[in-house]
Design goal:
2 domains; alpha+beta; 10 helices
Length: 345
């Protein structure tokens, strides 16, 4: 009997060792494992904080890595890296409080515009590739001047945002049939962009078509007006058209005769002369050729929609698209027809 009890105790001990102990160890292992599984994320996050992103490495341009910039006021030529030049262009051409994707689009457009101008300059700027005059090439402002124009509390964050837009799109350009495009851009399309032939004459580019743009109404650049006395209007027009005669008592003293594809004035009649809307914009200092006109007593009032020539990318239109979830590639492919975004190399 005593021997049976002894065997029974051995048996129970054996069962405990074989079944219960592994179960206990497994449970403990699971507890430890669950704690370990949480560590890699935290460890990886710590590593990412300590180490710079691989994407911050400068892009190695095989061509156009540096450019020669002509400063028009001084006549000096400065040689600097392409993307460093673009920091100053983007910060001058687009408000820093625009959406990051809009700024990225501007960076790619500005890079493309730069490459196109260099390859088609034909010695236009002598020893230089491009100049800093917005009436000739792209606007450019030094970092120091840019900081002076920004409030002190946003200077660093604005600059970091601009450089992020340029660096994150480094090497990207817009091409059509494998070639960089002439990437025109403007401030506000007034709802629809324009084809270049209606602005500068010549022939159209297939990638610069008239496209609709939504959401621009909320920007200050969308609408403006210019009021001139009848005498001032006549004097300004006679500077280029001394033959002008106009009878304001006539019902058709001033009459818009034709509109462009982009809803801008193509031809307008002032008394005995007919001129283009583009010329009216230049002569009278209007922000756009998209305007309406009315005579109010002794004044002639021009109500203007949009800002700029209207060709290519609308900057406020790109910001509106970005606010609605579009990325920089969506924006570019909306404003430039049939293009690709490719690596410059």
């Amino acid at each position: 009997m005593e021997k049976i009890k002894k065997y029974a105790i051995y048996f129970v001990t054996f069962i405990t060792i074989c079944f219960l102990l592994p179960a206990l160890l497994t449970t403990r292992k699971k507890e430890v494992s669950s704690q370990i599984e949480e560590l890699p994320d935290n460890t990886e996050a710590a590593k990412q904080e300590e180490q710079p992103s691989k994407n911050t490495e400068p892009y190695e341009y095989k061509k156009y890595g540096t450019i020669k910039l002509l400063h028009n006021k001084t006549g000096e030529i400065e040689e600097l890296p392409l993307d460093t030049y673009l920091y100053n262009v983007v910060s001058s051409e687009m408000p820093a409080d625009f959406e990051l994707e809009a700024l990225k689009a501007q960076a790619v457009v500005a890079r493309t515009y730069t490459i196109y101008q260099i390859s088609h300059s034909n010695g236009k700027h002598g020893e230089a590739d491009i100049c800093d005059d917005s009436n000739c090439c792209q606007a450019w402002i030094s970092k120091e001047e840019r900081f002076e124009k920004w409030d002190e509390n946003v200077r660093e964050s604005n600059w970091n945002k601009i450089t992020q837009a340029v660096d994150s799109t480094a090497g990207k350009i817009i091409t059509y049939n494998g070639e960089p495009i002439d990437a025109f851009f403007h401030s506000n399309s007034g709802g629809k962009t324009e084809v270049p032939v209606n602005v500068w004459g010549g022939s159209n580019f297939p990638y610069l078509q008239s496209v609709e743009t939504a959401g621009e109404e909320g920007y200050t650049q969308y609408s403006s007006s210019v009021s001139l006395t009848k005498t001032d209007l006549i004097n300004k027009l006679k500077e280029k058209h001394p033959e002008l005669e106009i009878n304001f008592n006539s019902d058709d003293a001033i009459k818009i005769l034709e509109f462009t594809d982009g809803n801008r004035v193509k031809t307008i009649k002032f008394g005995n002369i007919q001129i283009s809307g583009v010329e009216v914009r230049a002569v009278l200092g209007l922000k756009s050729a998209n305007f309406d006109v009315k005579i109010d007593g002794e004044n002639v009032i021009f109500s203007v929609v949009g800002y700029g020539h209207g060709v290519g990318m609308s900057q406020t239109g790109s910001d509106s698209m970005a606010k609605n979830g579009s990325n920089y590639e969506d924006i570019i492919k909306h404003f430039y027809t049939g293009v690709e975004i490719t690596e410059i190399n």
